[in-house]
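Protocol step 4 of 5: obtain the predicted structure for the target chain.
Materials: sequence only (see below). No template structures provided, no constraints applied. The aim of this step is simply to have a reference model before the mutagenesis design in step 5. Sequence pasted as it appears in the construct record:
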Amino acid sequence: MTRTVAHIDKVLKVANSPTAAARSRLAASWRRSADKHGLDPGEHRSPNRLSGTELYERVNAFEKFMTVAAPRLDSLFSLVGQSGCAVLLTDDDGVVLDQRISDADTAVFEAWGLCVGAVWSEAEEGTNGIGTCLEENRQLIIHRDEHFFARNTAMSCIDAPIYGADGEIMAALDVSSARADQTEAFNRLIGAQVAQTARAIEEANFRAAFDTARIVVAESEDAEAATLLAINEDDLIVGATREARRVFGFDRSGALAPQPASDVLGRTDGPTGFEKAERAAVVRALTRAGGNVSAAARQLGIGRATLYRRMKRLGLEQN
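Step 4 output (C-alpha cells):
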C-alpha cells in the first residue's frame, strides 16, 4: 500500500467514525471536510485561485490592513524565510492576499497553490492550517499527514487568527514549510513567533482604525494579547480589541457602544464625576505650567485666587 493510499484510507476511516470527532479536533475537521464540505481526500485538482477583478476587489478592501501588516510580515519572513518557509496573509475567507517567499522556494509553493489569490478555506481545501484556523477561530499547526487532502501532506502549516478592530476575525497569518525534514518541535517554535506577529498586526491595525483616539493599554492575564482601549476626546471608550472586550465584559464583536472611560477604568473612591474631571483639568494645567499657579490660571481662563481656592477644595498642594 502506497503512502498516499494509506493516508486516504486513514482519513476516511476517521471521518466515518461515529466517535472520533468527539475525541479529537483533527478528527472533527476531517469529518467536516468529508461530510459538510463533500471533499474526497484523494482529489488531485489544484487549489482554486482568484484572479482579475475579484482578487483586485479583495486586495483593495484590505489595502489599509495590508499596509499595516507589511512590515511585520517582512520581519517574520526574515526569521523563517531561510529555512524553507513562506509567510502568507489571507482574508477571512482564506484567500491569500500577500506573501513572502524566497526565490529558491517559489516554484514549490506555486505548485502547491500557496500563492496570492489561492483559496485555502476549509470548504475548498479540507483540513489545512489557514482554513481550519479560520473555521475553528484558534491558533493551530497542521503538520504534514494531518492535512485532509493527500496532495497536501508534504507541507507543514502554522497559523494564527487576526482579529479586526470590531473583534471579528478578519485574517489568518500562515507560515508554511516546504522542508521534508521539518519537525513538530520546530513547528512549535515557529508557532510562537506566528502568534506574536499576529497580535502585533492586530494591535497596529487597531491603532490605525482609531488614529485620532487616545489608546490605553489595559492589563490581562494573557501577556501576549493586544489588550487595547480607544478613548475619544470626550473621554468615552469607543473601541476595544478582542482581548479588551473579554477583560471588561464588552460584547465580543461588533460596534462598541460608547461608555465613559471613568466608569470602566476609574476608581470607586476619591473624586468622581465633574469633580474628577475638574481635578484632572487643574492638574494638567499646573503640569504644563511647571507648577506656576499664575500661568496655570491663565491657561484655565480664571483668576489666580480662584485657582488657589479650587486647588484647596480638590486637595491639591501647590507643589
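Step 4 remarks: Confidence is low (pLDDT under 50) at residues 267-272. The two ends are 85 Å apart (CA to CA).
Proceed to step 5.
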